[in-house]
């Protein structure tokens, strides 16, 4: 099925340290995929005070809380930022030209949540707004501590089924290795993973399973 036009807003999780490098990469890719500026929300954590600004016409919230990928979801439920659906992205993603088209085609009608891939999916995927608000208290408990809860809403919380985007478009590994690259010109080599089911790439610094220490260098 295809969701109605305008029913998805795309939220990007970033932070003060990463945003100057990552936002100039991901935003042009989303715009090139046909997503309008007003359909995107950047939530930029780790600031001294809360404020609102924009990047090339895309609204951006500067927030004190910094809860990794959960920063935007917490903001959405606390500030009642309504949209029928929210699609959560990391700032280290890059959209291909088919991304919007594929994101608008979940496998079932009116799903509560659709993951990019089977777990671990890095929490990337589609969330229905009323499903997020139903778990507001749970999300608020994760302020400043999002990492241990990766994939919790999508996969570990089993109150409703979690679906997967376009399993016919990817093989058993659900992603393709694209080599390593210094994606942001900082000297950090990241592994590039491509997810054909959404025409989406992710530049990863942590790719060898669960790590004793999380790399947070850009």
Low-confidence stretches: 209-215
Which class of secondary structure composition applies to the elements? Answer: alpha/beta
Major sheet characteristics: 8 strands, mixed
- Quaternary structure: single chain
Strands, count: 12
Shape: globular
Our Rg estimate from Cα atoms comes to: 16 Å
Q: What do the pLDDT scores average to?
A: 90
Q: How many discrete structural domains?
A: 1
Helix amount:
10-25%
Query: Order of strands across the widest beta sheet?
Result: 3-4-2-1-5-8-7-9
Just name the CATH architecture. Alpha-Beta Complex
CATH class: Alpha Beta
CATH topology: Spore Coat Polysaccharide Biosynthesis Protein SpsA, Chain A
Tell me what portion of residues adopts beta-strand conformation: 25-35%
What does the model show?
The chain has 218 residues and is α/β, with parallel strands linked by helices. It has a single domain (8-168), classed as Alpha-Beta Complex (Spore Coat Polysaccharide Biosynthesis Protein SpsA, Chain A). The protein contains six helices and twelve strands. The protein has helices spanning 19-32, 71-79, 99-103, 129-134, 136-140, 152-156; strands at residues 8-15, 40-45, 51-55, 58-62, 85-90, 93-95, 113-115, 125-128, 163-164, 176-181, 190-195, 200-204. The strands form two sheets. It has an eight-stranded mixed sheet, sandwiched between helices. It has a four-stranded antiparallel sheet with strand order 6-12-11-10. A hairpin with a 4-residue loop joins strand 11 (190-195) and strand 12. The chain is globular and about 40 Å long.
């Amino acid at each position: 099925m295809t969701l109605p036009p305008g029913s998805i807003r795309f939220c990007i999780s970033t932070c003060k340290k990463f945003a100057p490098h990552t936002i100039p990469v991901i935003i042009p890719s989303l715009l090139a995929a046909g997503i309008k500026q007003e359909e995107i929300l950047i939530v930029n954590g780790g600031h001294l005070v809360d404020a609102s600004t924009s990047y090339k016409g895309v609204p951006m919230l500067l927030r004190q809380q910094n809860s990794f990928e959960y920063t935007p979801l917490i903001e959405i439920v606390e500030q009642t930022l309504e949209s029928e659906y929210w699609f959560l992205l990391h700032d280290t993603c890059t959209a291909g030209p088919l991304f919007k088209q594929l994101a608008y085609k979940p496998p079932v009608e009116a799903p509560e949540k659709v993951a990019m891939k089977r777990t671990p999916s890095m929490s990337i995927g589609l969330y229905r707004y009323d499903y997020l608000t139903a778990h507001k208290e749970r999300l608020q408990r994760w302020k400043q501590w999002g990492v241990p809860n990766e994939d919790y809403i999508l996969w570990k919380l089993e109150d409703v089924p979690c679906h997967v985007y376009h399993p016919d478009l990817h093989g058993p590994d659900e992603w393709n290795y694209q080599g390593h690259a210094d994606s942001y010109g900082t000297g950090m080599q990241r592994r590039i993973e491509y997810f054909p089911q959404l025409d989406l790439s992710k530049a990863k610094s942590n790719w060898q399973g669960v790590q004793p220490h999380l790399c947070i260098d850009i």
